[in-house]
Amino acid sequence: MAPELMGVAGAESGVTLIELLMVIAVVGILLAIGVANYARWRATSAVMQGAQEFTQAVRTTRSGAKRANACWQISLMASSASNTQYQVKEYSGSSCPTGTTPAPTRTRVYDMPAGTQLIRVDGAGALSTTASVINFVPPYATSDSVPDNFQSRWIANTSIKRDIRVTGLFGKVIVR
């Protein structure tokens, strides 16, 4: 190429290897920060969605028991280590069974969002070993006088969680 076409005699235009490596390093750092924040946002959103779905299921169970004038139960289905499902059982009578009889007239199973689990906890937030069944009976709501505490949490990082509390007699649900 003729020197007069290059602008300055002997100068070449282009990007040096050092400049290219600097750009790649900056882009890599920005991507690393962005991916970490995106993963945490995704986990937080899934945990909140699980808490909201369980809350809605508790409210539906409570109002269904009142409307049908019958016992309805909501409970966790699996062990606390891998609990990703809960169920709602509807009975025809106004008193809730203590064993396997009578059989429910209808049972519905709900899944938690992917990557989340639902566990029962005690008042201090530790894993509870008590039964995870809430009975809703007419005319009010739950027959439990002590609040029931649950947690919707991310399986891979249990510090990402939402506390769900079903209060005593009227079965009001509080999510924190």
Attribute tags:
single chain; 176 residues; alpha+beta; minor pseudopilin epsh fold; 4-stranded antiparallel beta sheet; 1 helix; 24% strand; periplasm; N_methyl_site
Unreliable stretches, pLDDT < 50, 5 or more residues? none
CATH fold label: minor pseudopilin epsh fold
How far apart lie the N and C ends?
71 Å
Q: How many runs of DSSP E, i.e. beta strands?
A: 8
> What profile does the largest beta sheet have?
4 strands, antiparallel
What would CATH call the homologous superfamily?
Answer: minor pseudopilin epsh domain
Oligomer: single chain
CATH architecture assignment name: 3-Layer(bab) Sandwich
Q: Structurally, how many domains make up the residues?
A: 1
Beta content: 15-25%
| CATH first level | Alpha Beta
The Rg value, from CA coordinates, equals 28 Å
Mean pLDDT: 84
| Helix content percent band | 25-40%
Q: Given the helix and strand composition, which structural class is it? A: alpha+beta
* Lateral strand order in the biggest sheet: 3-2-1-5
Helix tally?
A: 1
> Based on CA inertia axes, which overall geometry fits?
elongated
Q: Secondary-structure element order, as H and E?
A: HEEEEEEEE
Question: How would you characterize this protein structure?
Answer:
The chain crosses the membrane at residues 20-39. Keywords: Cell outer membrane, Membrane, Periplasm, Transmembrane, Transmembrane helix. One of its GO terms (cellular component) is cell outer membrane. It is found in: Cell outer membrane; Periplasm. It is a single-pass membrane protein. By secondary structure, the chain is of the alpha+beta class. The protein has one domain: minor pseudopilin epsh fold (3-Layer(bab) Sandwich), CATH 3.55.40. The chain is 30% helix and 24% strand. It has one helix spanning 17-68; strands spanning 72-76, 85-90, 106-111, 116-121, 133-136, 148-154, 161-166, 173-175. A four-stranded antiparallel β-sheet has the order 3-2-1-5, covered by helices on one side. Strands 4-6-7-8 form a four-stranded antiparallel β-sheet, covered by helices on one side.
